[in-house]
Amino acid sequence: MNNNEREPIKFTEIDLGGDAGEGMRIPARDPAAVTPSKSITFSMESREQAFAEEALGRADEAGEPAPFVPFMSYWATYQQMTEAQRKWYFYWRSEVRQGRYHRTDLSYIFIYVYELIHQVGWTDPREGYRLLDEIWTAYRDKFPRLDHYLKEWTADFVLIHKLGIPLIHITQRAGSLLSHELMDLELVRLFQEKPLQIPMELLLILSDYDVQDSRFYVEAGQEDLDYHIPRIVSLAAGYLREKESDQWKALFAPDIPPKTTERYLFHRAVYDARLYGRLLPVTTIPIRNHAPLRSWVTQIIRYTENKLREHRGFKGRLRGVQIAPSIERLVELYLKRELTARQEERPAIVIDSDKLASLQKDTEYVRSMLTVEEPGTTEEKDEESVAPANKSSAVHSDTSGEGSISDPVVALHSEESREPASVLKTDPRLELGSGQVLDTDVSSDQEPAPVTETDHSPELLADDHHAASTDSRPSESVEATNAGSAAWDTSGLDEEWARFAEMLAPYQLEALRVLTGSIPNADLNQVADRHGTMPGLIIDEINDLAMETIGDLVIDGDRIAEEYIDCFENLKG
After folding, report:
1. Which residues partner with 102 through β-bridges?
2. Is the Cβ–Cβ distance between 554 and 560 less than 8 Å?
3. Which stretches are annotated as coiled coil (predicted)?
4. At what angle do helices 222-243 and 535-549 cross, to 10 degrees?
5. What is the pTM of this model?
6. Residue 266: CB atoms within 10 Å
7. How far, in Å, CA of 454 to CA of 137, rounded?
8. Tens of pLDDT, residues 242-264
9. How many CB atoms are located within 10 Å of the residue 207 CB?
10. For residue 226, is pLDDT > 80?
11. Dist CA 540 CA 555 (whole Å)
């Protein structure tokens, strides 16, 4: 039957008669039977917020000496520690604040780092960065996992407080790169520097060719490629900046829309987001993905490898390498000079012990015949006879320190660092004529101390809380290796000369100073090497500035123009 065929529903109404009953009465409440209510309180405070508040409250707490108690927790906080662990932590923290780094567990270190993130233990952000750097330096060898976490947290700290510290310092400390947006940010900063200096690890992320997978790199050329590629890229970029500025801008300063990335702050740390927020917007140009730049870097790396393969007699060449003729010529000139200098060999020193003993005996005999010894003079004469030998040994021992450079940036372009080492450095033993070996370098196996950005390298103390002795002698060759700064007193010159002097970079002032010297060509080459450029480029830069200010060229060829030589009388080194 269809719905439309249904009959209408009929309702029946029923009326119930009679009176309504009284119903059920509700008994009165007995006050004695009432149970008192209990108040229940709960907090919506997160673990991170609770830690931040407790950390601020314990900021000045000093710990008394206490025994070490092991502690391991994935999310380390005060609440996770026992009373004995808390006593050790605050004692250990007091020692760390005094520069004494006892052996401890990783969870204690994380709590200390969380405190620094929450502004506990410092008032100036640069002081906070220094403390982060010191705790990282002290314990990174013992706990390699610190590199993974602290490189990102330290970078967040630098960005939040706008410290202006190059992020490349953090990557070099950690031995690995930061996230993509931070690498883009650092590359854009590096491209604005003059001269351009990009370390090998950053060039690798700009190249479509992984040179480290090359058979030549693995078997024979790692040292050469790691040394020459960054310098060649620096020279080529400097050439483009000065000679082909349009191409330089197209490669290193392209008109690419900036990209903003939301970066999670202090990811995987116990961090209260009320302090700095949860996300940090990072706006930069995605320069890593710029195809023309990647192609340019790739071709230079491949061309350099081919030239080094040819020089080392390594079979096989990379195909499809195409670079501009001007850059090709620049690379060839650089490698010709560098590889020729490296191939120079110094004569080996061979000492015949038999002849040495015979000469010493003859000398003693002749000296005894020619001198009349008086009482009390024997000791003085013996000391005088030894003096020439000491001087001679001093000459040889001094060469063992050749090329010692404390500044890694100066070492990158230093002439001394490319010279072949002396015989005493390459072979710490002197070969004697009778087949004996005289060991002259007992410390050749010692590793150099790591360079840090802090004023001192923190020491990791042993379990008995005694400081480990270290040999941290400051290098005495820094001033001799680094170029001295030049100063130019222009008080007696016209206003345009003063403006010209103000526009000059330090290395350009240094170049002008050496051009007024007796051996300008050799000295100018050393200045160019130290700053990763070429003498001709420096001269062109100086003349360009001179044309803008005084309206004339001040360098004619490779000499100061004769009519302006008097203007540089007060340019001192």
Report:
1. 461
2. yes
3. none
4. 20
5. 0.57
6. 24
7. 10
8. 889 899 999 999 999 999 999 99
9. 21
10. yes
11. 9
